[in-house]
C-alpha cells in the first residue's frame, strides 16, 4: 500500500535493501588465510587511507546480531553480503571447510532469516586468497578457476538450505582494472595482455560456478544465481563519428565484456576482433566457450555509481608500453559535470534509466536489480545534530533522484525487482578505508558504536510504503 501523497510507487515485493561484503564488514577475526588486501595491508599499511586496514572493519564478526537488528530497524527486506573464501576454506586444493567459519556463516544467515531479511550471498568481492596469487598467478590461471568452483560448490552445499539468491562475482571488471591496468588493487600491475586473460578467466569462473549451481539441490529447490556488474554507461563527448567510436569501444570493453557472456553466453564480436588484431586476445578452448555459452545468469545485479564520458584520442597512444583499452579512447572531463567532490565521481542519475532501457531492449529484459548505488561522503560527523543523528539530506536527495529515474524505467517495462544501496553500515572500503562513508548507519571507529543516520529513517519509510 502506498502512502497518500506518494509519487513513485514500486512493484509488489520490491527489494529494498543494501549491500556490503565479508572482507569489508567482518574484520579478520579467526580467519585462517589472507586475501590479497589483507596481505597488501600487512606489507604496506601506508597505501591505505589513514593506515586503516581490514583487521577490525565494522566488527560484523562480533556484532552481527546487533547489526542485523539495526538493518531490520531501518526497514531493509534484503541484504547482500559475501562469504569469504579465505574464511570458509581451510585447504584450497581440496575445498575442506573451516568448522568455525561454517558455524559463523550459518549463525549469520539464521539471524537474517529470523529477522525476515532475505540474504543475497556473493562468492567473490575482490578477495582472492594471496596463496593462490603466489602459487598460480591468481585469476591469470585456470587452475584458480577450478579452485573457485570447488569453493562455490561448498557454499551451495553448506548454505543452500538458507540462501535462495546467489551471486558469483561482484564487479569482476574492477579486478581486471585494479589488479592489471590502473594499479589500485594488489598486485598493481600494468599488463594489458594479462588483463584480457583475467577478464576471460573471470567470465569462465562465473559460468562454471553457475553450471555447478544449476546441478545442485539448491537450484532444484528454487534457488537462482546471478552476477553483479559495475556498469558505467559510456557517453560520447559529441556526435562526431570519432567520439562515438571512442565511446563504443569503451562500452564494449568496460561493460559488454561481462554483460555479453553473463547474459548472452558469448563475447562481443567486435571486441574479440580488436583484441585479436592487437595480440592481446585470451587463450580459450572450444569446451570452455561452450560452458560459457550454456551457463548464463538467472538474474543480473547492477552497481551504478557514475557514467563514463569518452572522447576520441587527442594524443597518440604510447605503443611502447603495455596495451591498454585507452588505445581507442580518452576519458572526457565534461565541463560543468555535477560531481561528488569526495569521490570525484560524476553524479548522473539519468544513466540508471538508460541502463534499465538497455537491459530491457538488448538483454531480453532479464530480471535485474540495482545491487549498489550510493554516495560516499567524507567528514559526515559534522552533520550530526544534538540528538546524535547524522543529517545526511544530500544522500536522501541523491537516492530519490536515482530512484525516480529507475521508476521511469520500470514504468516503461524494464524488469527491475529491487534497489540496494551501498551500504547498510559504514564499512571499510579498500584503499579508501573509512575516508568516504556510504552507510544508512554510521560507525564510530574508536568505539564501534553504530547509529542510524537520517537516511536510515528515510529508508524505513520508503520500504514500508514501497515508494516515496
Ligand atoms: C564498489 C564496490 C564496493 C565499495 C564501493 C565504494 O565498487 O563494490 O566494495 O567499495 O564501490 O567504494 P569507494 O570507497 O572506493 O568509493
Written account of the structure:
- The chain has 468 residues and is an alpha/beta fold.
- 41% of the residues lie in helices and 16% in strands.
- The chain has helices at residues 22-25, 36-43, 60-73, 85-88, 99-114, 130-136, 142-159, 172-180, 192-214, 217-220, 241-264, 269-277, 286-294, 350-362, 393-411, 454-465, and strands at residues 15-19, 78-82, 89-91, 96-97, 118-122, 165-170, 224-230, 234-236, 299-303, 308-311, 330-331, 339-340, 345-346, 368-372, 377-378, 416-422, 436-437, 441-444, 449-452.
- A hairpin with a 4-residue loop joins strand 12 (339-340) and strand 13.
- Helix 3 runs parallel beside helix 5, helix 7 (142-159) packs parallel to helix 9 and helix 9 crosses helix 13.
- The model has no long low-confidence stretch (mean pLDDT 98).
- Bound molecules: 6-O-phosphono-beta-D-galactopyranose.
- 6-O-phosphono-beta-D-galactopyranose is lined by residues 21, 24, 170-171, 174, 230, 303, 343, 372, 376, 422, 429-430, 432, 436.
